[in-house]
Amino acid sequence: MSIEAKPGKSLGVAMKRKEDPRFIQGKGHYVDDISLPGMLYMAIVRSPYPHATITSIDISEAIKVSGVKAVITGKDLEAAGLGWLPTFHGLDKQMVLAIGKVLFQYQEVAAVYAESRGAAADGAEVVQVDYDPLPVVADPFTAKKDETILRPDREAKTNHIYHWQVGDKDGTARALDGSAKKVKQRIWFQRCHPAPLEPCGCVAEFDKMGRLQFHVTSQAPHVYRTALSLVTGIPEDKIHVISPDIGGGFGNKVPVYAGYVCAVVGALKLGRPVKWIETRTENLTSTGFARDYHMDVELGATADGKLTALRVSTAADHGAFDAAADPTKYPAGMFGVVTGSYQFPVAFAEVDAYFTNKAPGGIAYRCSFRVTEASYGIERAMDILADELGMDAAELRRKNFVKKEQFPYASALGFTYDSGDYHQALEKALDKIGYPALLKEQAEKRGRGELMGIGISTFTEVVGAGPSKHFDILGIKMFDSAEVRIHPTGAGIVRAGTKSQGQGHETTWAQIVAEELGLDPQTIMVEEGDTDTAPYGLGTYASRSTPVAGAAIATAARRVREKAKKIAAHLLEVGEADVEWKDYNFQVKGVPTKSVTMKEVAFAAYTNPGPNEPGLEATNYYDPPNMTFPFGAYIAVVDVDRETGEVKVRRFLALDDCGTVINPLVVEGQIHGGLTEGFAIAFMQEIQYDAQGNNLNTNFTDYLLPTSLETPHWETANTVTPSPHHPLGAKGVGESPNVGSPAAFVNAVIDALSPLGIRHIDMPVTRDKVWRAIRDAEARREK
Ligand code: CDP
Fold first, then answer.
1. Catalytic residue among 94, 219, 503, 685
2. Active-site residue 61, yes or no?
3. Which residue range is the domain that position 239 belongs to?
4. Which residues contact 128 (CB under 8 A, 6 or more apart)?
5. Could you tell me the CATH number of the domain that includes residue 493?
6. How far apart are CA 500 and CA 452, in angstroms?
7. Candidate from 667, 718, 726 with most ligand 1 atoms within 8 A of CB, to mutate
8. What's the gap in Å between 550 CA and the centre of ligand 1?
9. Which residues pair with 636 in a beta bridge?
């Protein structure tokens, strides 16, 4: 079957789903809404120490608490062969409940099961655990010294987890040595957290047939089913995973957490359903964090600003277990996209990951596996180079962009970018924001000593993991899937291996089917997240849904259309070769008046299929030939108060190109949400640990979320450069605003401060940090 990219325009079906209650997100079917007869509640005892030997655990007081039914510890699980859980990365394993020692503050130590949530919490309060504190390793640079080995369970007696590299090391060194201009900057993308509004949770129940009914906040239900089977030994057909409505995931709901295993064990042991819902503090302190990459970025260039080389060396803080949810062959994810939108004759990137006494994770928070770190690194470095060259930041980018005619473009670090038009995107964005007028205003303000900054970020993403020859998780290839079934009346259902957490698949998947088959999108039911009904898929994260499942849906719908064509030929009493699909109807070629609609064909498929097999349905497992490479040009305008360090984002323009747009309203919503998260990361958010390994951001008064008062007004624009290999020409979009915006914000602040000789401030760029940087710069000047 031939697959062609559609022309670069929005798909044509109107979106009216808002009126249909079945499709409205938030209809109240969340895990915490589930209440089953005889259900028990679970609470987890957590370690106050970041690194300590457990000398004893006494549960005698806890089991006396009214309503408490049982308490389990790591030793109980170990005895049952369930002490350790494989991480999705496949390179490491993780303790379910601590065995012998704890490795990070808030680590899971015991699970308490009780008749009510309150009783479970009361029981957890009085579990007596004695700890003998051990030296703490709070950063990767201390870890590197190997003075304290954190993971004696591993064969290799070192805190070093892996070294990964890509590119031409010697060639890059030579090119940098020979470059007329060089810049080098340590850039830290701080540890942050996706903090979905709904924390993680599950209800585990063994039904009357002994089958595990597992309701869970999972972005990847099928992978959970397989992982649960592998960990517990329960045959996979005896596991039913259901992900109901999910209140945000952002990568945080990809890993399998200790609490899930404990809930399943409790349900099995006690013969009653068990519910576990995390608290906000548990979510922030023990579930998948994001980023924590310390990047040394070096750029070489000619005197007139032509890039000659890029070298990036990164120390990655992975916490106590290597639980990064990266594809097996990519321990540092897609970090190789660090060459960004630019032509580098040569480049080299390496990542060294270390264990520390912090929570595990390193998940793809609204990011295609370390793309956000890579994008931030290159976009910050480009501005530092522009400053060094005394060159306009837009001009430096223009001079070095991959050109439209160079696509498909083989990057120096091994990706083949599918399509792009970076020059058009930047010019349109500069035009929309009124760049020349802003530069003029800035020059005038600088003359008066005022601090105004303009920050540009022209990022390229790599999304749609992924082609099976490269990508797998736990050995499972990263395809995705769809089943399209059309009922006799022309209504239908599409089931996919993905799982929306608010991205609006209920709308866009129906639109794809409707567009391909000429049906009403409001009569196409969308179902995801149920492993008994949906075909096997790898789930929704890393903006992979549209590039992979979107393609599977389009392909399955086209298969339905192929079959429908045979039935149409039967109805029209002509040969199949004489039938064409035109204007959403089957027509006899050259005789447009002789036609049948898909609805008529659907009815015939069940009532009068002629010589054809009855029924109208198809399934597709889509193995993408390549990733998709969305891109954008973002521009921030800020004013900085010299006296207080306060930054005001006066304007922000986001121009995105995600190929063919399926639904402009959904895309706009994705961009607004991602920009708001990017803004929070740039200015407010960091999961901080002190030198003793204490987590300092355990709730929303310390880990800040922007409200409508802080959030800037977003201006948006787009260009459309279809992906040549995707059936619809669509690329992913959900992550782009989170990937592209942090650099635009920070570049704008540093641009404002550059007259003072300030070159870099690590995120979050708080008022305090800005004020100190100004004060120090002024002190230097006075000397
Ligand atoms: O994997 P995830 O759903 O988070 O990300 P995505 O593939 O970027 O899609 C996010 C939402 O935007 C989905 O509802 C997509 O169908 C929609 N979208 C779109 O309408 N057009 C695109 N070119 C890309 C995404």
1. 219
2. no
3. 34-134+198-247+253-286
4. 56, 57, 58, 59, 61
5. 3.30.365.10
6. 40
7. 667
8. 8
9. 455, 652
